[in-house]
Amino acid sequence: MGYRKNYGAVDNFRLAAAFLIVAIHTSPLQSFSEVADFLVTYCVGRVAVPFFLMVTGFFVLAPYQKCLRRPMPARERSIDKVKKFFMKTAALYGVAILLYLPVMVYAKQWNHSFGEWMKEIFFDGTFYHLWYLPAVLMGCLLLMGMMRLCSPLAISVSVLALYLVGTAGDSYYLLVSQAPAVKAVYEGIFIVSSYTRNGIFFAPVFLWLGVLIANGKLELSAHHAAVGFGVSLVGMLAEGLLTWGMGWQKHNSMYILLLPVMFFLFEWLLSMEAASSGLLRDASMFIYIIHPICIILVRGAAGALKLEKILVTQSLVHYLAVCIVSAAISFAAAKGMQLWKNRT
User: Fold this and answer.
1) 279 or 27, which is more confident
2) Where are the alpha helices (DSSP H) in 107-202?
3) What does the alpha-carbon distance between residue 150 and residue 162 come to, in Å, rounded to a whole number?
4) What mean pLDDT comes out for the span 215-220?
């Protein structure tokens, strides 16, 4: 990695991605149009999580891939970076689990067997939005193992195959499950993980895409990247409408055309000139973690103020209210964390 150093737009898009994740959990256009809400929330919004995975691949795993070809002393910096990422992400996951334990008790989601707890901790997440954290950790471990054992071509074929299997169990599940043998395979998978958007089928391909963009020699112009993004996004919207309209979806996180959408989006962001902001990076992480609590806070405040019809029933107002509360708390926390770091 090193032929491109303009990462400001990539860093700043984290905030937009965080607000797209909030949209997925609040359905902002539901009050106006079910179709429009589906397209915005469950199609366009699906770029958010792959984007964060590609950021990890680009900044964490790409240096690791390069260091594997170097003598051991030269590897230490990249290996330390990977270790730091794993420790930070695991710690964040642990804190998030503890943070949402009271919410789980309140929502009566506490009574689980040991097997269900293991399933949630390693695949589903202990709260509905936390699945990303075990997914990125598991995906990184899987991809790092592949980097040591396989050629780049073999890795590309493997992660693509895993993604296609995952997509068949996601947006195309009710189509492919008409074959009894296929249905039996996926039913076995769903015993271990409720969905295929996890660290095995979903995360590796986007992590690897980030690595390829960082370490590869292809560099698209802003115009070509923007055109590619626009064309592939239109195709993905059509794919989403098709799979949704035909009733094929078990879930809607994985589309075939999401792959070119993410490639062109990331290339487009890399082609833009923008200033980077550490505050935005930290705030976007806080928004991701706390926004379900902010949903509860907005609903509670709406009930206390007798404003449910405005702050809850009106989906767009509800979304904006959750975004404002999440952003206010998150930027305050991010600023406080920066001040604490500067003093130590």
Assistant:
1) 27
2) 114-119, 132-149, 152-168, 173-176, 180-192
3) 15
4) 88
Summarised one tens digit per residue, pLDDT across range 113-156 is: 888 889 999 999 999 999 999 999 999 999 999 999 999 999 99
Cα separations (Å) of 218 from 222, 228, 263?
A: 13, 14, 11
4 vs 273: CA distance, rounded Å: 11
Q: Are 316 and 325 in contact (CB under 8 A)?
A: no
Q: What is the rounded CA–CA span in Å between residue 24 and residue 3?
A: 35
The arithmetic mean of pLDDT across residues 288-315, rounded, is: 96
CA 304, CA 199: separation in Å to the nearest integer?
40
Could you tell me the end-to-end alpha-carbon distance of the chain, in angstroms, rounded to an integer? 31
pLDDT at residue 74 in the model: 62
Map residue 132 onto helix, strand or coil: helix
Give CA–CA dist 317/321, Å, rounded: 6
219 and 67 Cβ atoms separated by less than 8 Å: no
pTM: 0.94
Amino acid present at 9? A
Q: Give SS3 for 30.
A: coil
Q: Please give the Cα distance from 85 to 305 (Å, whole number).
A: 43
**Does the pLDDT value for residue 2 go beyond 50?**
no
Per residue in 295-306, pLDDT (tens digit) is 999 999 999 999
Residue among 61, 9, 2 nearest 267 (CA): 9
Q: What is the spatial distance between Cα 234 and Cα 227, in angstroms, rounded to a whole number?
A: 11
Contact 163, 200 (CB under 8 A): no
Angle at 231 between CA 207 and CA 270, to 5 degrees: 45
